[in-house]
Design brief:
Blueprint (H helix, E strand, L loop, with lengths): L1 H12 L7 H7 L4 E5 L2 E4 L4 E4 L2 H4 L8 H13 L12 H13 L6 E5 L2 H18 L7 E5 L10 H4 L16 E4 L13 H18 L6 E6 L15 H12 L2 E5 L23 E4 L11 E5 L1 H11 L14 H34 L7 E7 L2 E9 L4 E2 L4 H13 L2 E2 L1 E2 L4 E4 L7 H18 L1
Parallel strand pairs: 3-14, 5-6, 5-7, 7-8, 8-9
Antiparallel strand pairs: 1-2, 2-3, 4-10, 9-10, 11-12, 12-13, 12-16, 15-16
The structure holds pyridoxal-5'-phosphate.
The site of pyridoxal-5'-phosphate has 15 residues, from helix 6.
């Protein structure tokens, strides 16, 4: 009864993110009631394993008392503090320092945001400022990658390269350019690591030339593993090769670790997998494990110094009311403590089990490819394995698969192009990982 009235209220009032508004009104909302660990309970009392950690974010799992305590204590102590006017709070200062210590190389400067989209927005503003401050204002072109996702803000949606974020919104802008993805499963350049890396390097060089040469290009953005594009894992060496080319061309390299950060692929940051240091890095999601909103831009000393010296005594005019919110920072500190105290280790162990389990689905007639790293994975479905024929590019089959998995007690991401996405909480037990795999197989059997 309660659920029915909620469905009505939702239908009439809540505009949901990235949804067919009319389709959602028809289908009605699924109300979630509570969650603990990797298990969520819906309003009907049905229990499901959350194979997607909310939206790739609840890395620590739900209902963690120490995180709740950290938030509650901070709210009692100091519910809000701005970073404006030379003020600050202890948790924000400590979190900035902890992030600087744990991040690669000289990414020692931290700008706090509310999530990933405004972290990306902030990088665009900082990069423009940086290029102007060093006397190169003509370096104002930005390059990102097809199938990449960098949020859905007015500017970030144009760096994003998924059509649904563009259609009807007037983006991308003419200073935002794309090169093809490294997507190996159907790469026209071939699927060997060398071929994919060579194709991406050539594509970046060609794009730089096409937009007027390196003296016009400000920055290149990539995700160490493309998430929302369908968990597209570049071959080993790809990230490093692209980073090196950017250095050679004097183009800032931005690693968007909003999904891959905080243990999702194994180490704290996926950049560590390739031993690279980006010029800027964006993080969010796992930073607070989704308990409260927070993101950050991690900036190299070099970029920071140019901006700081360029501004001199003037203020750098970029800020949000909720930047470095002390409650979010307190949560971030506690979540970092959990990563250190077993969560990263458990994620690595569970990730190996997840990848092995999903790989065992490779014999299924619907499974074209299984890919991923750690607790970030995808199963790409095909209607014909030999021809790699994709599922019809409409949302209907994906929604059916999502619904069937739900019936079996599993939440996964079913992308419109027939890719199933996995990003379970890092706290998953062996039996939860096994259940994710078994329920996926049962879902696929029913889909045949
Ligand atoms: N960048 C990447 C790689 C993401 O996956 C996302 C969100 O999924 C964002 C940026 C945007 O983050 P948010 O949704 O917190 O604004």
């Amino acid at each position: 009864m309660l659920s029915n009235s909620l469905i009505e209220l939702d239908r009439e009032h809540w505009i949901h993110p990235v949804a067919s508004y009319r389709g959602h009104e028809k289908a009605g909302v699924r109300v979630l009631r509570s969650a603990k660990g990797a298990t969520i309970t819906d309003a009907s009392g049905k229990q499901l394993i959350d194979g997607f950690a909310g939206l790739w974010c609840v890395n620590a799992g739900y209902g963690h008392d120490s995180i709740v305590e950290a938030a509650a204590n901070q709210m009692r102590e100091l519910a809000y503090a701005t970073g404006y006017f030379g003020l600050g709070s202890e948790p924000a200062i400590r979190l900035a320092a902890e992030l600087a210590e744990r991040s690669p190389g000289d990414l020692n400067r931290v700008y706090f945001t509310l999530g990933g989209s405004d972290a990306i927005d902030s990088t665009v503003r900082f990069i423009r400022y940086y290029q102007q401050a060093r006397g190169k204002p003509q370096k104002d072109q930005f390059i990102s990658i097809e199938q990449g996702y960098h949020g859905s803000s007015t500017v970030g949606a144009g760096l994003t390269a998924l059509p649904v974020f563009h259609a009807g919104f007037g983006v991308p802008y003419d200073w935002q350019h794309k090169i093809p993805s490294h997507y190996t499963y159907r790469n026209p350049a071939g699927s060997t690591p060398d071929a994919v890396i060579a194709a991406s390097l050539a594509a970046l060089r060609a794009k730089v030339e096409a937009v007027g040469g390196a003296e016009r290009v400000a920055a290149f953005y990539c995700e160490p593993i493309q998430g929302s594009g369908g968990v597209l894992v570049p071959p080993p060496g790809w990230v490093k090769a692209m980073r090196e080319l950017c250095r050679e061309l004097d183009i800032l390299f931005v690693a968007d670790e909003v999904i891959t950060g905080f243990g999702r692929t194994g180490p704290l940051f996926a950049c560590e997998d390739e031993d690279i240091v980006p010029d800027l890095m964006t993080v969010a999601k796992g930073l607070t494990s989704g308990y409260v909103p927070m993101g950050a831009v991690l900036m190299s000393q070099k970029v920071y110094a140019v901006i700081a010296d360029g501004a001199g005594a003037a203020a750098v005019g970029h800020g949000y009311t909720y930047s470095a919110h002390p409650v979010s920072a307190a949560v971030g500190l506690e979540v970092l403590r959990l990563y250190d105290n077993g969560l990263l280790d458990n994620g690595r162990k569970a990730g190996a089990r997840l990848m092995a389990g999903l790989a065992s689905l490779g014999d299924h007639p619907l499974v074209g490819e299984v890919r991923g790293r750690g607790m970030l994975a995808a199963v790409e479905l095909v209607t014909d394995k030999a021809r790699k024929t994709p599922l019809p590019a409409t949302s209907a089959p994906a929604q059916r698969i999502f619904d069937r998995a739900w019936d079996k007690g599993l939440v996964i991401r079913a992308f419109g192009n027939g890719v199933l996405g996995y990003a379970p909480p890092l706290c998953c037990t062996d039996s939860e990982i096994d259940a994710i795999v078994e329920r996926t197989r049962a879902t696929l059997d029913e889909t045949l």
